[in-house]
Amino acid sequence: MNDSNEPSADVTSLASRLATLTTEHRDLDAVISQISSAPPPGDELLLRRLKKRKLLVKDRIAIIQRLLDPDIPA
After folding, report:
1. What is the pLDDT of residue 69?
2. Which of 35, 54, 59, 68 could form a disulfide with 28 if both were Cys (CB 3.0 to 4.6 A apart)?
3. Predicted TM-score (pTM) above 0.70
């Protein structure tokens, strides 16, 4: 990620990426809901692509959350 040895820089970078992905996930959810409620003809492919992207973003969010808060027993 960063060439610096400061873990706080990595955490800040991950937190920023997490915020960006969370916003993208929320936006995708809104678009998918809107298209699903009144689908224009021929947009099945677009809907599938949006759902696939939403799942990818969700997976990336989960990975970053695990990196920021690892589940290590004390």
Report:
1. 87
2. 54
3. yes
